[in-house]
Design a protein that fits this description.
The structure holds 2 protein chains of 2 kinds.
Chain A: H1 2-18, H2 24-31, H3 34-65, H4 70-85, H5 88-96, H6 98-101, E1 104-108, E2 114-119, H7 120-123, H8 126-152, H9 155-163, H10 168-198, H11 210-221, H12 224-253, H13 265-284
Antiparallel strand pairs in A: 1-2
Helix pairs in contact in A: 2-12, 3-4, 3-8, 3-11, 4-8, 5-8, 8-10, 9-10, 10-12, 11-12
Chain B: E1 9-20, E2 23-34, E3 38-42, H1 49-56, E4 64-69, E5 72-73, E6 76-79, E7 82-85, H2 88-95, E8 98-101, H3 113-124, H4 129-142, H5 158-170, E9 176-180, H6 188-203, E10 208-211, H7 215-221, E11 224-229, E12 232-237, H8 239-244, H9 249-258
Parallel strand pairs in B: 3-10, 3-11, 8-9, 9-10
Antiparallel strand pairs in B: 1-2, 1-4, 4-5, 6-7, 11-12
């Protein structure tokens, strides 16, 4: 079994190294060009903003879902049902084309006079459509993750908090959510990595993200595969960094939940090196 | 331990009714606790003792009747058409004066022992961190856990956790303490240390309402023992009366079973 696996891996490596059509020199030359890097920045910004929208709005929706008020829990249920039930790509294109549904948007008293009126196309740029589409979609998923986290906290915690005179809101903020976070973080890490890749959808709105930047280059040079490799390499680098960040965040929030926290890879390495050094010293000073 | 008679009532329950769906859990409960009095609630499981205790600080709603703590309704207001839920902020302020200790401790696991104790005084009573830590240190000394201030709850034994929970409730300087089977989740050898802490409070004159299965403890600590069965108060009186010489057959058979 492992022999077969080894041969397959060897074949893959050999193919990747010897197939000239991968054009690795081209990959290297484009990896840090200005267009690609500014695309990367846009992708990161978009991921950050949409995730922030997702976490804040998602937490509010989650608390709303758990509300005893049927109107609040009903509306939030509807929100999740709609935004989770339609494809993100469809939502993106929908927001981008909002002007055909509502040519103008006004702010003012509901059903009364308007204070300010905007052309929808001016208000909703392709970047705004991207943030709306991905952010609202992300919030629906985050709401379910946060709700699961809140439900994982024993009800006795809320009992204890309110019996000490905390309001429901205080109890949620100070007691329940900090404990729910331990359950929320791993799933949120997944969501963040997913979102980072989902942002590549905005290339259909001509937002100049990482993928779109690669596309603009290869549409002129026809070096499709090398440029897709360039984009993939950057996606992999960022997701790797996020995975590491997630590890340390989980560790931080594990305090109080386990008796001892396991050492980090860095600490483990230091321990291992320390042991090895000591062993060498022991051997060196052994009986003559 | 004799207390002045005719003192103001700390808890006054009149004809309290509560049901879960079609099951009546409390059926016209009448209970009084005077200032400085220690009252133990005993009775078989399902008799409504814990539910009544949770109604006192409005962790559970009552359906009908009146339940006053120090002459104030907690968590509801009385209207012509019945009882109405009060605003959360108002309820919270009143609850702050009633301490509660739970069967399962319910310490906050993400906080150290010290943080468990100082959080509510700082948050709810706007006490400064310095003075909150100061009184927390005294309370920890009182329950014999001065060396555990920086431990996390999970690093403590059940008995130690429950004593921290008592200190946490006391930090709010309550005028009434509610205990919901405080020793039921403990290993037998850890029960004593918790009961000792509660006895200490009784000696200090704290008003307490204690739901317990420890009949020997009830006999020792209580000024009055109340026996509940099927959502009603069957018997109420001094420990010698209710435990030593019960008048109802139901009480006698319950005591025979658990002693």
């Amino acid at each position: 079994m492992s022999a077969v696996l080894l041969i397959l891996v060897a074949m893959l490596v050999h193919m990747v190294c010897t197939n000239r059509r991968f054009q690795w020199p081209v990959v290297r030359s484009y990896l840090t060009t200005h267009t690609i890097l500014s695309g990367l920045v846009t992708t990161l910004e978009l991921t950050g903003i949409c995730m922030a929208v997702g976490i804040v709005l998602g937490t509010l929706v989650a608390v709303g879902r758990l509300s005893t008020n049927p109107l609040v829990s009903g509306c939030t249920w509807l929100y999740i049902w709609f935004f989770r039930g339609t494809p993100a790509l469809v939502q993106l294109i929908f927001w981008f084309n909002l002007s055909s549904l509502m040519p103008k948007i006004s702010f003012g008293i509901p059903f009364g006079p308007a204070f300010a009126t905007f052309q929808t196309n001016a208000l909703i740029s392709s970047l705004a459509a991207a943030v709306l589409g991905l952010g609202l979609n992300e919030a629906a998923y985050m709401a379910e993750i946060v709700r699961g986290g809140i439900l994982s906290v024993d009800e006795g915690q809320t009992d204890a908090a309110v019996s000490l005179g905390m309001t429901r809101v205080m109890a949620m903020r100070r007691i329940v959510l900090p404990q729910a976070i331990r359950v929320i973080i791993p799933a949120t890490g997944n969501q963040l990595i997913g979102l980072l890749k989902y942002t590549s959808l905005v290339s259909v709105l001509a937002v100049q993200d990482l993928l779109y930047s690669a596309q603009t280059i290869y549409s002129q040079t026809f070096q499709t595969i090398p440029l897709l490799l360039v984009a993939s390499i950057w996606y992999l680098i960022v997701t790797s960094l996020l995975t590491v960040a997630q590890y340390y965040l989980e560790r931080y929030y594990a305090r109080g939940s386990t008796r001892t926290i396991p050492p980090t890879p860095q600490q483990r390495l230091r321990l291992y090196v320390g042991h090895a050094m000591r062993r060498r010293v022991d051997v060196g000073q052994g009986p003559a | 331990m004799s207390r002045p008679d005719g003192a103001e009532l700390m808890v006054s329950a009149r004809d309290v009714w509560k049901s879960y769906g079609s099951v009546d859990v409390l059926r016209g409960v009448e209970i009084e606790v005077r200032h400085g009095e220690v009252v133990c609630l005993i009775g078989p499981s399902g008799s409504g003792k814990s539910t009544f205790l949770r109604c006192v600080n409005h962790l559970e709603k009552i359906d009908a009747g009146s339940l006053l703590v120090d002459n104030e309704a907690i968590g509801y207001t009385v209207h012509k058409d019945g009882l109405r839920e009060a605003r959360d902020r108002v309820t919270a302020r009143k609850r702050a004066q009633i301490g509660m200790v739970f069967q399962s401790f319910n310490l906050f696991p993400h906080m150290t022992v010290l943080e468990n104790i100082i959080t509510a005084p700082m948050l709810v009573r706007s006490q400064s961190r310095l003075s909150a830590v100061d009184s927390a240190t005294q309370l920890l000394a009182k329950v014999g856990l001065s060396d555990k201030a920086s431990s996390y709850p999970r690093q403590l034994s059940g008995g130690q956790q429950q004593r921290v929970a008592i200190a946490r409730a006391l930090a709010m300087e309550p005028k009434l303490m509610l205990f919901d089977e405080p020793t039921s989740a403990l290993d037998p050898e850890l029960v004593g240390e918790v009961l000792e802490a509660i006895l200490g409070l009784a000696r200090d004159g704290m008003t307490m309402l204690i739901v317990t299965h420890e009949i020997g403890f009830a006999r020792e600590v209580a000024d009055r023992v109340i026996f509940m069965d099927q959502g009603r108060v069957l018997e109420s009186g001094s420990p010698e009366q209710v435990i030593g010489n019960p008048s109802s057959n139901r009480t006698r058979s319950f005591l025979d079973k658990i002693q």
